[in-house]
Design a protein that fits this description.
Number of domains: 2
CATH architecture of the largest domain: Alpha-Beta Complex
Strand content: 15-25%
CATH class of the largest domain: Alpha Beta
Order of helices and strands: EHEHEHEHEEHEEEHHEEEHHEHHHH
Helix content: 40-55%
Structural class: alpha/beta
Number of strands: 13
Radius of gyration: 20 Å
Distance between the termini: 36 Å
CATH superfamily of the largest domain: Spore Coat Polysaccharide Biosynthesis Protein SpsA, Chain A
């Protein structure tokens, strides 16, 4: 589509190829708008776009790529290989929520799909997900099944919400000790193998389909969240309006997970910050009172456990100890949540 660069936030530039601008005016609006936020994942992003185009031929779509101030040549490579995409170059790392919101404001499709750059589309997965959404309008938000490159299941396509019980199990190690347990591993949805259609609390932003009208009704992502937690917040807000997110195993993609996060400690701190913010935003007063201490306890137990294990086997657990020592030292930040930024 022909998209003007006017009224963009400072530090952003938008580019379309002349060919795409000429042809777009003669075409009907796309049914689907795909948003990819890229940060130093050059080859992965190119592969993502390659598989998206190869596996999505029956649904007219437009693509927006937000380059979050990468330093690996991603933007130039994307512009050269995929001139039909709308490339939004940012002079700073905007984070996941803001970058998606900026691109989504320019979207024209009935459907909006958020797709991570470290994914590969398999077996017409995007088309299958759109068809699934058409058949289940009551859900509002949709996701699929994710696998690792070797084909093994990656459960991180959907989750259940954080609850006092799930936080307790996480804090005392029950969810780790009994992975896949319906009783103790509730956020991971227990033994569910993502092999059936199912209502879930949260569809993960790596492969996240939503009607654009619902996205606009919700105001997009809450910019309080810089990275992690924003899709959980959006899904929980949609549920308050009566929608029930769905996932289907018929739409499967490869997802590497965390390719743009170059520090395990940094990622863990952001996740803890997001969880604190979700508790504060979505829990009632009495629950909130116990929620934050349980998040504190979760960090404390991991730090202490990694310290003990690193003394038993330095070669095996030193890295884990260094990670959780860094996380623990930043506890004042993540206990305040994203509101403190």
């Amino acid at each position: 589509m022909t998209l003007a660069a006017a009224r963009l936030p400072e530090g952003l530039a938008v580019s379309n190829s002349p060919a795409s601008r000429r042809s777009a005016s003669a075409e009907a609006p796309p049914r689907l708008s795909v948003v990819v936020v890229s940060y130093n994942t050059r080859e992965l992003t190119l592969r993502c776009l390659e598989t998206l185009h190869a596996q999505t031929t029956a649904v007219p779509f437009e693509v927006f790529v937000v380059d979050n101030a990468t330093s690996d040549g991603s933007a130039d490579a994307i512009a050269e290989r995929f001139p039909q995409a709308t490339l939004i170059r940012s002079a700073e790392n905007l984070g996941f929520a803001r970058a998606n919101n900026i691109a989504a404001r320019r979207a024209k499709g009935h459907w909006l799909l958020l797709l991570n750059p470290d994914t590969e589309v398999l077996d017409r997965a995007v088309e299958r997900l759109v068809a699934f959404g058409d058949a289940h309008p009551e859900a509002g938000i949709y996701g699929g099944r994710t696998v690792f490159p070797d084909g093994s299941l990656n459960i991180a396509s959907c989750w259940n919400r954080i609850t006092p019980w799930s936080l307790f199990c996480n804090a005392v190690g029950l969810s780790a000790a009994f992975k896949g347990s319906a009783l103790f591993d509730t956020e991971a949805i227990g033994p569910f193998k993502r092999d059936a259609v199912r209502h879930v609390d949260i569809v993960v932003g790596c492969f996240f389909l939503i009607r654009r009208s619902l996205w606009e009704q919700l105001g997009g992502f809450d910019l309080t969240y810089w990275m992690y937690g924003e899709e959980a917040d959006l899904c929980l807000r949609a549920r308050k309006l009566g929608y029930r997110p769905l996932i289907t195993p018929e739409a499967t993609i490869v997802h590497l997970v965390g390719a743009s996060s170059n520090s395990t400690a940094r990622k863990s701190i952001m996740v803890a910050r997001a969880r604190t913010t979700l508790v504060r935003r979505h829990w009632a007063g009495p629950q909130r009172v116990i929620g934050i201490p349980l998040i504190w306890l979760s960090g404390a137990t991991r730090y202490l456990a990694s310290a003990v294990l690193s003394r038993i086997s330095r070669t095996r657990f030193t890295k884990s100890f260094e990670t959780w020592r860094s996380v623990w030292s930043a506890r004042r930040d993540w206990l305040r949540g994203y509101e403190s930024i």
